[in-house]
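Hey, I'm writing a tutorial for new members on how sequence and structure tokens pair up, and I'd like a real worked example in the thread rather than a made-up one. If someone can provide the structure for the chain below, I'll link this post from the tutorial.
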Amino acid sequence: MSARFPVSWWNGVRATLGHARLDRHEIAGSLGDLGTFLPLLVGMAATNGLDFAASLFFAGLFNVITGLAFAVPMAVQPMKAIAAVALTEGLTAPQILAAGITVSAVVFVLGVTGLIDLVDRVVPKSVVRGLQLALGLSLLMKGLQMVAGTGVALGLDSWLTGALATLVVLALFFSRRVPAALVLFGAGIVLAVLREPAVTDSLGLGITLPHWSPPAWDDFVAAFPKAAVPQIPLTMLNSVVAVCALSGDLFPGRGVSPRRVAISVGLMNLVAGWFGGMPMCHGAGGIAGQYRFGARTNGSILFLGGVKMVVAVVFGASLMALCKAFPASLLGVMLAFSGMELAMVTRDQTRRPDAFAMLLTAGACLALNSVALGFALGFLMAIVLRLPMFRASE
């Protein structure tokens, strides 16, 4: 058995790599999740003291690992609930790491035991669609807020910058020759350098590697109720259940299993969390964003992971100044279109009971600012609407 395991593993990797492509569309698609990734990473690094270089390195490392494990462009992104709590309540960097480790331990156990498959079977598809709709709309709103609150770039009001970026995306909406994400990313780098020329001086070459920086027990105690508890249901439902549903929709025949995704999410932070890497997960919004801007295979993720690792090692924390100078209005436009792409997958809920459950789930998630409560209310609605008295009047 032990002798056959490496051969079986290698055959699986070879089969996965057989799906990979790398062209300008895959490269453009790899940038489709930057609207979520960069603002949260830079925000936690600047506000909470998170290790920027270590976080970027491990994000790249797990991009590569997931690119070898899955034949779809599986996004690696920050855990949003933990990031939101960290930015609004001022968590310390060790507390952020402790929260990510705790969440991943729970999800890893669910994956190893197979209990995550039970969650996937029990949760109605309409409720999953409601979560995707809520997240898609929240990404859309966050993108618009980023456009509205970014001040002035090169004398142009941020709304005008955002409007021009939107026109670029719309003009290239159906183009297979000129990827919109590459155009926006290149324009953002140029604008960042022109607006703040000093960022080029801050870039420095050197070898930067993650180092052992474990959180203390007190950090786990402090982070659990504040950050870990709200993140656990979001990770189970959006990072596992919704990811599996969306991958099956977007990539027929290449769908991923909840168990493998849960184990992947668990391993990420059970490794990176002890070396300063930010809490990471997979996400339906990230897949939608990468798909929107051209990603169709794991080649985009392998490319992105390699670039992240090289940049993190060579430039390290000095790259943070350039990221902070990148126009938030352009990131906001990319984030908004990614959100709309994610929300569009809910169009299949055409039956009235399914639509009611989906809309209640999404509305409750947004209005109550709680994935757990939105899920609970939507799940209850879906169960009630399956009773015979409602089926008869459908």
